[in-house]
Design a protein that fits this description.
Layout (H helix, E strand, L loop, with lengths): L4 E5 L2 E5 L5 H7 L23 E4 L6 E2 L10 E3 L3 H14 L17 H9 L16 E2 L4 E3 L9 H9 L5 E4 L6 E4 L12 H5 L5 E3 L12 E6 L8 E7 L2 E6 L13 H4 L15 E4 L2 E4 L2 H18 L3 E4 L6 H14 L5 E2 L6 H7 L12 H4 L2 E5 L3 H4 L1 H14 L2 E6 L11 E4 L2 E2 L12 E2 L2 H16 L4 E5 L6 H12 L4 E5 L6 H6 L6 E2 L3 E2 L7 H6 L4 E5 L15 E5 L4 H4 L3 E4 L8 E4 L4 E5 L11 H12 L2 H4 L4 H11 L7 H5 L4 E2 L27 H5 L2 H5 L2 H4 L2
Parallel strand pairs: 1-5, 16-17, 16-27, 18-19, 18-23, 19-20, 23-24, 27-28, 28-29
Antiparallel strand pairs: 1-2, 3-4, 3-5, 6-7, 7-10, 8-9, 11-12, 12-13, 14-15, 14-29, 21-22, 25-26, 30-31, 31-32
Helix pairs in contact: 2-3, 7-18, 8-18, 8-20, 9-14
Bound molecules: iron/sulfur cluster (SF4) (3 copies) and FE2/S2 (inorganic) cluster (FES).
Length: about 700
């Protein structure tokens, strides 16, 4: 490492790596230099002049956000001249800025308001008429109020650089410059809201949050997004038991400040008018509302009778329920209902990857690895649509570390823009670059392996590599892919893409007929999902899944469904038990990279109960609760930590909002791989399985109709 540079800031000796900007060196030493346009991780704009500092031997004040440290440099950040410069800058910024803080959404957390309090003039000298332009709606979620804009260009840069979209630009020049959307009058973009989040003032505001509350009136709860498997942490602003806002401004969790549209806005499914609020039971062929006591009694009696008669149970679990719920459900199935007929919809072949990595350690990449490793190979899917956080990480790695990115896919993908090599495989639908439409296509594993051979020499010369693959690879193809990776002679890590917020956790928790929690063989594998649907079961118990979505006829003699909505599966049930969403319960989930994080209850919902509680009540009603233990998330998690290989993770790390990666069993899995059971839904940005149907926001944005 190059020698550190020594300099003095406000009389304190500071050391920093060569190339460090004065603003960052000061921050590391605990000295804050005010800034508007500077934003860590984005390109430099030097647009606002708020960061001016005095530097000895320099004739004029310098912008600390563009000035690299130099040996012996003497910087002063709090002199009368600096204060006057800040006051002057603020006065300029306020020339056209309306003083409407009392009605502005940003009031209370506005950087301009804070700066004016600290450095601004007590009175305005400006008496001229301010330029006013009416507010514009760029999209259902993005509103723009030009007079409030201080032209810091953070929004333009975060959209172009961070998101790789480039949907915002500047029109006109000078005092009338204005931020404008890519299609002239509206946005066609990811609708991620990052531009709103990063706007230091109230110029860009959120269509879902605006005028709803003041920030200090909300309770802020850090939990995990419940849509895709990337596992973004989101801070939910709640008020009166309603979620008003989602963001991650404290930069905690695996995602820093990143959220896609689903994490930022797609929580609204929880307040859909179609939420079930009462249990339902079939009376004379029709589902009718019953009390919890009645519903639990029907289920418990029938389950006990089926056990007593030696009947056959089937249990289908979820990609969304918590680890604790999946663990408890499989324990219930195996120990009480005495069946290995338990499965879930497998969206990626995690089992095949765990098996292929037998005997090797440190081979599972984390979300951070996608930002840190020197090269990333993305095979299949469309990362920017299906795994927005992973795509964001890869893009940031390329921007900040010049990582080499390789993209092999059937359709064009966002990674093509900066990949050192992009290969199209299989048959792809043509793209329309003029619209925000992403093409997709079909390719076989054989197509991908042919492309990999073309890349072999280039990949071998990389110092390290992360291979990300979707369900184009399953079963033996995953083994072949790992053999390919290991033959490169460089350190390689892997990510098997899965679809939903706890798809990975479901596999880890033994939600399969052939494997117990921690990937231990179950001995006598039971039926998988399709077999259960086709069998004449005595009772089928579906928790948080919708296996009848495809129109399969119900064959089970008794069907119980726990869900938030009257889905296709729930509509066929004898008893429907209303379930709480991930935002209404505690527990843990495991993301696509095997990183475990904590769900925290943000709100309560009338009528519905967390699935763990529902299962506990059924156990109590059946008289088997003692055998299963308490249905309390923290207690079940301790049991998981004790019994599930890979989950011996430090509790304080996750209890304090961090993520800890699991290390699954490290040996061959003596079970038959089942590629035929693996199928990804390939949800794009505006879809999210059954949950997505009930989110209004995801359907109101124009892109939901333009893209898949
Ligand atoms: S919502 Fe996201 S993608 Fe759309 S303009 Fe803003 S930053 Fe860009
Ligand atoms: S809209 Fe906000 S982020 Fe964009 S330039 Fe204006 S003040 Fe900066
Ligand atoms: S990337 Fe996935 S986990 Fe993150 S906010 Fe979007 S849907 Fe949620
Ligand atoms: S923060 Fe330095 S010029 Fe804006």
């Amino acid at each position: 490492m190059a020698d550190l540079v020594k300099l003095t800031i406000d009389g304190r000796e500071v050391q920093a790596a060569p190339g460090t900007l004065v603003i960052d060196a000061a921050k590391a030493a605990g000295i804050e230099i005010p800034a508007f346009c500077y934003y860590e991780g984005l390109s430099l704009a030097a647009a606002c002049r708020m960061c001016l500092v005095e530097v000895e031997k320099m004739p004029k004040m310098m912008t600390a956000c563009t000035l690299p440290v130099a040996e012996g440099m003497v910087v002063k950040t709090e002199t009368p001249q600096v204060a006057a410069a800040r006051k002057g800058t603020l006065e300029f910024l306020l020339t056209n800025h309306p003083l409407d803080c009392p009605v502005c959404d940003k009031g209370g957390e506005c950087e301009l308001q804070d700066m004016v309090f600290r450095y601004g003039a007590g009175e305005s000298r400006y008496t001229e008429t301010k330029i006013h332009t009416p507010e514009k709606q760029f999209s259902p979620v993005v509103f723009f109020d030009a007079p409030r804009c201080i032209l810091c260009f953070r929004c333009v840069r975060t959209c172009t650089e961070g998101m790789g979209v480039g949907a915002l630009g500047v029109i006109f020049r000078g005092a009338v410059s204005e931020i404008a959307p890519n299609t002239g009058d509206h946005l066609e973009c990811d609708e991620c809201g990052a531009c709103i989040d990063i706007c230091p003032v109230g110029a860009l505001t959120s269509g879902t949050y605006r005028y709803q509350t003041r920030p200090w009136e909300m309770t802020h709860v850090g939990t995990i997004c419940t849509h895709c498997s990337d596992g973004c942490k989101t801070t939910l602003g709640t008020r009166n038991d309603r979620i008003i806002r989602g963001n991650n401004r404290d930069h905690s969790g695996v995602n820093g400040e990143f959220l896609c549209i689903k994490g930022r806005y797609g929580f609204d499914f929880y307040e859909s008018g179609e939420r079930l609020q009462s249990p339902l039971a079939r009376v004379n062929g029709k589902l009718e509302e019953v009390s919890w006591g009645q519903a639990l009694e029907i289920v418990a009696k029938r389950f006990n009778q089926t056990v007593a008669d030696g009947g056959t149970f089937g249990v289908i679990g979820s990609n969304h329920t918590s680890n604790e719920e999946s663990f408890y459900l499989q324990k219930f199935a195996r120990e009480v209902l005495r069946t290995n007929n338990i499965d879930h919809h497998r969206t990626g072949d995690v089992v095949a990857l765990v098996d292929a990595l037998s005997g090797k350690t440190g081979k599972l990449a984390t979300v951070a690895d996608l930002y840190e490793q020197k090269a990333v190979l993305v095979l299949g899917g469309d990362l920017s649509l299906e795994h927005p956080l992973l795509s964001y990480q890869v893009r940031a790695n390329w921007r900040h570390h010049q990582a080499h990115v390789y993209a092999v896919s059937a359709g064009t993908v966002r990674e093509d823009k900066y990949a050192v090599a992009s290969i199209r495989v299989g048959a792809s639908t043509p793209s329309d670059p003029s619209r925000f439409i992403h093409p997709h296509g079909e390719a076989s594993a054989a197509d991908y392996f042919a492309a990999l051979e073309q890349l072999r020499d280039k990949l071998k010369s990389e110092p390290a590599l992360v291979i990300v693959f979707d369900d184009s690879f399953k079963g033996g193809d995953v083994t072949t892919l790992v053999e390919f990776g290991e033959s490169l002679g460089i350190p390689v890590k892997y990510i098997a893409l899965v679809d939903y917020s706890n798809s990975r956790g479901a596999a880890d928790m033994g939600m399969t007929p052939e494997l117990l929690p921690g990937y231990k063989p179950s001995g006598q594998p039971g039926m998988h999902v399709n077999e259960m649907l086709a069998a004449d079961l005595s009772a089928l118990w579906v928790v948080g899944a919708n296996p009848f979505k495809g129109g399969a006829a119900r064959k089970a003699a008794f069907l119980v469904v726990q869900d938030m909505f009257l889905t296709e599966s729930a509509a066929l049930a004898d008893v429907v038990l209303p379930a709480a969403s991930a935002y209404e319960k505690s527990g843990t989930v495991t993301n696509v990279t095997g990183e475990v994080q904590k769900l925290k209850r943000a709100i309560h919902t009338m009528g519905a109960k967390p699935d763990l509680e529902v299962m506990g009540f059924i156990a109590r009603e059946m008289g088997v609760a003692a055998a299963l233990g308490p249905w309390v998330a923290d207690v079940v998690f301790e049991e998981i930590r004790k019994n599930v290989q890979g989950y011996q993770i430090p509790t304080p790390v996750i209890a304090t909002g961090g993520a800890a990666q699991t290390a699954p069993v490290n040996g061959r899995l003596p079970v038959e791989l089942r590629p035929d059971l693996v199928h990804s839904d390939h949800n794009g940005l505006f879809a999210s399985g059954t949950l997505g149907r009930y989110s209004k926001v995801l359907h109101t944005v124009v892109e939901s109709r333009l893209s898949r």
